[in-house]
TrEMBL record:
<feature type="domain" description="DUF218">
    <location>
        <begin position="37"/>
        <end position="195"/>
    </location>
</feature>
<dbReference type="GO" id="GO:0043164">
    <property type="term" value="P:Gram-negative-bacterium-type cell wall biogenesis"/>
</dbReference>
<dbReference type="InterPro" id="IPR051599">
    <property type="entry name" value="Cell_Envelope_Assoc"/>
</dbReference>
<dbReference type="GO" id="GO:0000270">
    <property type="term" value="P:peptidoglycan metabolic process"/>
</dbReference>
<dbReference type="Pfam" id="PF02698">
    <property type="entry name" value="DUF218"/>
</dbReference>
<dbReference type="InterPro" id="IPR014729">
    <property type="entry name" value="Rossmann-like_a/b/a_fold"/>
</dbReference>
<dbReference type="InterPro" id="IPR003848">
    <property type="entry name" value="DUF218"/>
</dbReference>
<dbReference type="GO" id="GO:0005886">
    <property type="term" value="C:plasma membrane"/>
</dbReference>
<protein>
    <recommendedName>
        <fullName>DUF218 domain-containing protein</fullName>
    </recommendedName>
</protein>
Length: 204
């Protein structure tokens, strides 16, 4: 009986935004005095349906925020992510290709730079740093999900890029009201904790 109540309490706690916020990986120390020269957005995967490729919902959410920030601040937008899918042939677009297509439809006035060779967050940072250096940029706004940003910021900082973090808030404001959205974030959070350990061992 005690185990049943404990399991119930854990399940309820996992639906509370206040609890889930406390589980998020901590952000790196904030760097003051950053004057962004570009907005960088990281891809969040692709999906295929009936032979057509499109961005995931998470990817679209990131891109919308990044494009809006680039428009508001008059900055170029850098989209990063995605080799071709294995077994899909040369016609399969990269994540960056799909992001550029979306931007051209909705924000045709933006200057867009594309990095389309990266396979993970580390390569996002390494390859984007090379692209930014070609344009004499080393201070950016970095857009991703809150759970992913600690790892992404560490990777970009390791390449000499000063970055301010930006993300769409996904947790409800009501901190102690149960939320399915809070529960759905848990797999992402645990994944990011494991990824941080792996990245510190391999890259950082």
């Amino acid at each position: 009986m005690a185990l049943t109540w404990l399991a119930l309490m854990v399940l309820v706690g996992a639906t509370l935004p206040a609890i889930v916020r406390g589980l998020l990986p901590p952000m790196p120390r904030r760097i003051s005095g950053v004057t962004p020269q570009a907005v960088v957005v990281l891809g969040a995967g692709r999906r295929q349906r009936n032979g057509e490729f499109s961005l995931t919902t998470r990817g679209l959410r990131r891109l919308e925020l990044a494009a809006r920030l680039a428009h508001e601040h008059g900055l170029p937008l850098v989209v990063s992510g995605g080799l071709k899918l294995q077994g899909q042939g040369d016609e399969a677009p990269s994540e960056a290709d799909l992001m550029v297509e979306q931007v051209r439809r909705r924000w045709s006035n933006l200057t867009v730079l594309k990095e389309s060779d990266s396979r993970n967050t580390w390569e996002n940072a390494v390859n984007t740093a090379v692209l930014l250096a070609q344009h004499h940029v080393d201070e950016v706004i970095l857009v991703s999900d809150r759970s992913h940003l600690p790892r992404a910021l560490l990777c970009f900082q390791s390449q000499g890029i000063l970055a301010q973090a930006a993300w769409q808030k996904r947790l409800p404001k009501q901190a102690w009201r149960p939320s399915a959205g809070a529960l759905s974030l848990l797999p992402e959070i645990w994944y990011e904790w494991l990824a941080l350990v792996w990245y510190h061992l391999r890259y950082l």
